[in-house]
Amino acid sequence: MEKSNNSHVSEFILLGLSNEPSIQLLLFIFFLLMYLLTIWGNIGMILTISIISDLDNPMYFFLSNLSFSDLCYSTVVTPRMLHDIFSIRKSISFISCAVQLYFFATFASIECYMLSTMAYDRYVAICHPLLYHVVMNTKACILLVCVVYISGLLTAIVQTSCTFITSFCEHNAINHFFCDIPPLMELSCSDTYTNKAIIFFIVCFLGLFSVIVTLASYVYIFATILKIRSSAGKRKAFSTCTSHLLCVSLFYGTAFFMYLRPPSTYSVNQNKVISVIYTMVIPMINPIIYSLRNKEVKKACK
């Protein structure tokens, strides 16, 4: 792997979503509205959970941290993208590109690990209700969140280092609307096989570990729910999981399709659409899902 100080590129050009002037205004208005909804929904969720005493329990503590990660990784990408829509020269410096990728990878990783933590929380709440407040005490919750944030920071360091330690010689046009790993790797003029292998291993290991924790938690949860005799009890137990299941399906589905599919199926335009989903759509709809599907949150918001 060649070091980045041998790189000839001092800045990158972000080609964005479209260069068609006829739809740029439409795209700007559409994504601006989405971002405003993201800010309103996630800040509203954090403030509601912080203020309303009825929501003072581990599930909502983790949910407020999920809203924080949603807000942050959307903010890393969206304002820059909105600015670039009407920019004549959509340039971003080498350092700014690396910083953007680092913070995006950090908060996206935190999102992934937080969803697994929330699945474990639901497992303890449904499968071991009498021990719930003993196992998920304040100290344990804070420790879990700290582990999630530290893991996200370390994961992002590895991903960003493996991406920018390569050389970028002549081509500097990123066919994307933000600095992401796949389009940057395509521009590298050095051998990226080892770098890609390390990133793939990290994503597979930590991503699959998160998925296994989530799936294992829900296997036990569903087995416990099926043992409940009353239909009302089953509905109540299942209703506490549906919001989380929707968020997990959306996030893992788009992330794995983006980063773990074979290179032969790589499509730039397809990747842009998927990136819009997990950088703008998911952070916007997560608080909506929890607001609509959770009676306690709806009551608190009112």
Topology:
Layout: E1 11-14, H1 21-51, H2 58-85, E2 91-93, H3 94-127, H4 132-135, H5 138-164, E3 173-174, H6 181-187, H7 193-227, H8 231-259, H9 268-293, H10 295-301
Parallel strand pairs: 1-3
Antiparallel strand pairs: 1-2
Helix pairs in contact: 1-2, 1-9, 2-3, 2-9, 3-5, 3-7, 3-8, 5-7, 7-8, 8-9, 9-10
Q: What does this entry look like structurally?
A:
The chain is an all-alpha fold. Helix content is 75%, strand content 3%. It is built from ten helices and three strands; from the N terminus they run βααβαααβααααα. It has helices at 21-51, 58-85, 94-127, 132-135, 138-164, 181-187, 193-227, 231-259, 268-293, 295-301, and strands at 11-14, 91-93, 173-174. A three-stranded mixed β-sheet has the order 2-1-3. Helix 2 (58-85) runs antiparallel to helix 3 and helix 7 runs antiparallel to helix 8 (231-259). It is globular.
Structure characteristics:
disordered N terminus, three-stranded mixed sheet, 3 strands, mainly alpha, 302 residues, 10 helices, 75% helix
Structural class estimated from helices and strands: mainly alpha
* Unreliable runs: 1-6
Strand order across the largest sheet: 2-1-3
Rg over C-alpha atoms, rounded to the nearest angstrom: 21 Å
What is the number of helices? 10
- What does the largest sheet look like? 3 strands, mixed
Shape: globular
Strands, total number: 3
Name the beta content range: under 5%
Order of helices and strands: EHHEHHHEHHHHH
Ends distance: 56 Å
Chain-averaged pLDDT: 85
Report helical residue fraction. over 70%
Assembly form of the protein: single chain
